[in-house]
């Protein structure tokens, strides 16, 4: 928390200093009550001038308390707004620099909790906790000091029941930090299972597996409930008993009973007893505020730890002496890559093992292989979504680790199968990689991607917000993504075959857009359907993270092996699909 709160520490200290003035002013009404009682009960005529002076001083004290309290919270609330903005920018910036592998082993629920919930949990800590804790501690001290000024016995009587509550609370809070960490871990687990269930709900409902699919959420919720009730149950019973020591009837009884003894003994005046009793009645409220601040600080401590952990995640290192590629050829040499171990798995998964590959400038290279063979992993090393454990990936003779990120992404672009459009205008989505592009450039890219006419049909054309006025189909989203890549105009392109799940009409338009996109570029394409890459200059076959064959389509089919078997399976599936279409047409 010290690390996170450092940017606003000066302003929180200023808020506490202002609150000290408000706390001092809080005691003025109690002093006024005692002095007013003495004046009214004094023998002889009432001094009306003194009465009105006391009333004026009390009014000024109340106004000062309200003014300084307002100023203190205003300072800390503005500090909180600044801190939250800074933290969210830092987290977003951090997420943009983390390797892709980090996201594959971190649930979106955990990321959302850090960005939204954890940052929000710091609000009370910054905007309220220090000021309110200062008020809760200092105001009673000022008030008690006045009780001791009246008579030391009245001061002790005012706090007679507090030590008993303090002992009970200390027992309740003995392991609260560890328990809060367990509770937070349980909430994060529940959040992750909710995100997982919602993301796949359409699939599980289709296959009638809803009950089984949400079992992980139910189990996580049950586990959290058991832990929470096991911890909080005994605490609630103890708190119910200990709260009696702070109850107004008991405090009033103790002070009046003891005060009667003091008055009867001639130690104090009745009006002094009234003042000290009023002060004793407000002390529990202050103590409860302190205990709430302690509890909230412990919650915020867990949130702060998670934010610090996220901000401390290792990033892809950048070089201090960046180099620029000379040319657009790609050389992948002796590359090994292992995904880090995940929760419950002691060893990482080796995805690539000694991969060697060359992509001449202007060539089209296709990666094929069974699921899990390492195709996507190898392709994402080129735009440096991750770094190999050993070996190198070079562009124009320069290792990608020696190229500044801004320079790298001017050379390497990518169109992924899972398209992500931002909730901004269609125009801004297309020129994401080239923010300074003119409207004419944007229009030209959209025409080349066969999406221009569809955009013009939107309510506000290119200014329509995606997800609000613009609702694209999967094939249309792909064409927007292709327009984005065309506008970026990178000489090297990584393409995750965009037509794998497109309908026939969209597929034809996407294929035409891709033909425009790949012309004259160095292209590495991840192939899902072999029929789309038979014209590739080089087809690289991966199996188990190793290159088991490469060459032209004709050469690989003639050589037999993995590719020949995949091609035979593809042809058989295509034939069955054609026959099914023919039967459906015949029935019609």
Structural write-up:
It is a single chain. By secondary structure, the chain is α/β, with parallel strands linked by helices. The chain folds into two domains: 2-311, ABC transporter transmembrane region fold (Up-down Bundle), CATH 1.20.1560; 330-587, Rossmann fold (3-Layer(aba) Sandwich), CATH 3.40.50.300. Helices cover 63% and strands 10% of the residues. It has a six-stranded mixed β-sheet, with helices on both faces. Strand 4 and strand 5 (398-399) form a beta hairpin. The protein is elongated, with a radius of gyration of 35 Å. It starts with a helix and ends with a helix. This is ABC transporter ATP-binding protein. Belongs to the ABC transporter superfamily. Siderophore-Fe(3+) uptake transporter (SIUT) (TC 3.A.1.21) family. InterPro entries: AAA+_ATPase, ABC1_TM_dom, ABC1_TM_sf, ABC_transporter-like_ATP-bd, P-loop_NTPase, Type_1_exporter. Residues 20-299 form the ABC transmembrane type-1 domain.
Radius of gyration: 35 Å
Structural class: alpha/beta
- The CATH architecture of the largest domain can be named as Up-down Bundle
Largest sheet: 6 strands, mixed
Share in helix: 55-70%
Main CATH class of the largest domain? Mainly Alpha
Look up the CATH topology of the largest domain.
ABC transporter transmembrane region fold
Number of domain units: 2
Described by its quaternary structure, the protein is single chain
Mean pLDDT: 79
Pfam families: ABC_membrane, ABC_tran
Membrane topology: Multi-pass membrane protein
Family: Belongs to the ABC transporter superfamily. Siderophore-Fe(3+) uptake transporter (SIUT) (TC 3.A.1.21) family.
Transmembrane segments: 12-31, 51-73, 122-146, 152-173, 244-263, 275-294
């Amino acid at each position: 928390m010290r690390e996170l709160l450092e940017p606003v520490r000066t302003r929180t200290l200023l808020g506490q200093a202002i609150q000290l003035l408000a706390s001092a002013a809080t005691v003025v009404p109690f002093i006024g009550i005692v002095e007013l009682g003495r004046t009214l009960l004094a023998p002889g005529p009432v001094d009306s001038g003194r009465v009105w002076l006391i009333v004026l001083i009390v009014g000024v004290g109340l106004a000062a308390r309200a003014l300084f309290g307002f100023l203190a919270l205003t300072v800390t609330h503005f500090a909180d707004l600044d801190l939250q903005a800074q933290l969210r920018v830092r987290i977003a910036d951090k997420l943009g620099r983390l390797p892709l592998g980090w996201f594959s082993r971190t649930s979106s629920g955990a990321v959302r909790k850090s960005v939204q919930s954890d940052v929000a949990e710091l609000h009370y800590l910054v905007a309220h906790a220090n000021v309110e804790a200062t008020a809760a501690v200092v105001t009673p001290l000022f008030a008690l000091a006045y009780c001791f000024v009246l008579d030391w016995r009245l001061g002790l009587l005012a706090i007679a029941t507090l030590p008993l509550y303090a002992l009970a609370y200390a027992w309740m809070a003995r392991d609260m930090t560890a328990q809060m960490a367990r509770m937070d871990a349980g909430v994060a687990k529940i959040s992750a299972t909710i995100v997982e269930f919602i993301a796949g709900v359409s699939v599980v409902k289709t296959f009638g597996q809803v009950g089984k699919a949400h079992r992980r959420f139910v189990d996580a919720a049950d586990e959290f409930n058991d832990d929470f009730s096991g911890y909080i149950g005994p605490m609630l019973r103890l708190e119910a008993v200990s709260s009696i020591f702070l109850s107004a009837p008991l405090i009033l009884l103790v002070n009046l009973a003891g005060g009667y003894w003091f008055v009867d003994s001639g130690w104090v005046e009745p009006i002094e007893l009234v003042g000290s009793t009023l002060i004793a009645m407000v002390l529990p409220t202050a103590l409860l505020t302190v205990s709430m601040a302690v509890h909230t600080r412990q919650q915020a401590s867990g949130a702060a730890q998670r934010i610090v952990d996220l901000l401390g995640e290792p990033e892809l290192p950048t070089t201090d002496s960046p180099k620029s590629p000379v040319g657009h050829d790609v050389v992948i040499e002796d590359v090994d890559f292992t995904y880090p171990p995940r929760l419950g798995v002691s060893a990482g998964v080796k995805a690539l093992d000694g991969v060697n590959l060359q992509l001449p400038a202007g060539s089209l290279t296709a990666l094929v292989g069974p699921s899990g063979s390492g195709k996507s992993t190898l392709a994402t090393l080129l735009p440096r979504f991750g770094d190999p454990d050993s070996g190198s990936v070079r562009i124009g003779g320069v290792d990608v680790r020696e190229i500044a990120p801004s320079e790298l992404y001017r050379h390497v672009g990518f169109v992924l199968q899972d398209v992500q459009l931002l909730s901004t205008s269609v125009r801004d989505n297309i020129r994401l990689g080239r923010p300074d592009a003119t409207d004419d450039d944007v229009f030209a890219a959209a025409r080349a991607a066969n999406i221009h006419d569809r955009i013009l049909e939107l309510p506000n054309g290119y200014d329509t917000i995606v997800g609000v006025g613009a609702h694209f189909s999967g094939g249309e989203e792909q064409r927007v993504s292709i327009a984005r890549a065309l506008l970026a105009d990178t000489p090297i392109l990584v393409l995750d075959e965009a037509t794998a799940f497109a309908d026939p009409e969209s597929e034809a338009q996407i294929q035409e857009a891709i033909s425009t996109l790949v012309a004259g570029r160095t292209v590495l394409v991840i192939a899902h359907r072999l029929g789309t890459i038979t014209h590739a200059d080089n087809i690289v076959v991966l199996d188990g993270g190793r290159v088991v064959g490469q060459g032209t389509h004709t050469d690989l089919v003639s050589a037999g092996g993995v590719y020949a078997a995949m091609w035979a399976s593809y042809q058989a599936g295509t034939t069955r699909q054609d026959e099914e279409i023919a039967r459906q047409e015949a029935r019609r």
